[in-house]
């Protein structure tokens, strides 16, 4: 039992550390759009360590990693950023989250090539982010 | 990643220190201590303070028994938001059910599997 | 010997436990249990479709499962001796109270023994939890109705 837990923890550590590296990455959008995303996110730079934004058709998924000590106000940060994003991209359906799970899932989106699979994944992520408790 | 484990460790530990203070300094029985912690969890959620704590500390806030009071209140408030006053009663176990049902279930399974060692 | 004299004598006889050491032990034990919980939470988030918000429920259930194994094999008692409140405050302590009561009273039968005694210790926690949650939620709902505070 202990050994298995240790192995699982080690796997998670390795997998977790690979993700965020203090950068903002935007994919799937036009150049001016990605600049805009970065601009919006930069304003809150001190509380956010890294961010990923993905444009998929009419959807815009934005995930941010909040600095551990700022996580107290995670809900507030999410709310503020969602409002800003919606203002900046009125045509897109914005889904913004600071959740680790959703961060991982969105980070993986780039690897998917097929259109339907991508779309399905986006729907799953959106429904996940809406789930309460 | 490492930071979240550390934060969970420290916050969870601090809850237990509060418990130990109630044991040793206030000379309360374990039952009283746990009741006080559960009630304080419920009150904290009433002020909307417990959810940010969970966001901050993860398991460090969900594992101590205070989260039990929090999730009871949270379920009640969620339902009250939708259905008004009746929701206060109906929504209470909506969120908490996992802890209690797990404890009942595993308690019963344990009584089937294990034998008491202290008594013949 | 009257009651006062007895309590005085009791205080003299019982060995003084250093408070700092006890707090330290409780902090360590509780902290380790919560760190393990964090690991379990990451496990559920990584391999299943749980978010940070929803992973709490299966984590609590898993921790109680671990408590069942430890209680069944008689190891939880030792943790409790070392950790004091550190083992009682996390949900594993709540689980241990219910599970050990269930195991202990099995000889009295499943309905009256296990079913009846399971909530002997844990019942008060549930009762006070539910009642306080009711009062808090009621007050807050009324305050919201009158527009004093928002949700």
Automatic annotation (TrEMBL), chain A:
Top-rank taxon, per record: Bacteria
Protein's UniProt name: Sporulation lipoprotein YhcN/YlaJ (Spore_YhcN_YlaJ)
Record has Signal as a keyword: yes
UniProt xrefs under PROSITE patterns: PROKAR_LIPOPROTEIN
Signal sequence segment: 1-21
Keywords, comma-separated and alphabetical: Signal
Automatic annotation (TrEMBL), chain B:
Transmembrane parts of this sequence: 95-114
InterPro entries on file: Spore_V_AE, SpoVA
Keywords attached to this entry: Membrane, Transmembrane, Transmembrane helix
Keyword Transport: no
Pfam family, one: SpoVAC_SpoVAEB
NCBIfam families: spore_V_AE (TIGR02839)
Entry protein name: Stage V sporulation protein AE
Species for this entry: Bhargavaea beijingensis
Automatic annotation (TrEMBL), chain C:
Keyword field contains Nucleotide-binding: no
Keywords: Membrane, Transmembrane, Transmembrane helix
One Pfam family named in its UniProt record: SpoVAC_SpoVAEB
TM region(s), chain numbering: 26-48, 54-73, 85-103, 123-143
PANTHER family assigned: STAGE V SPORULATION PROTEIN AC (PTHR38450:SF1), STAGE V SPORULATION PROTEIN AC-RELATED (PTHR38450)
Protein name according to UniProt: Stage V sporulation protein AC
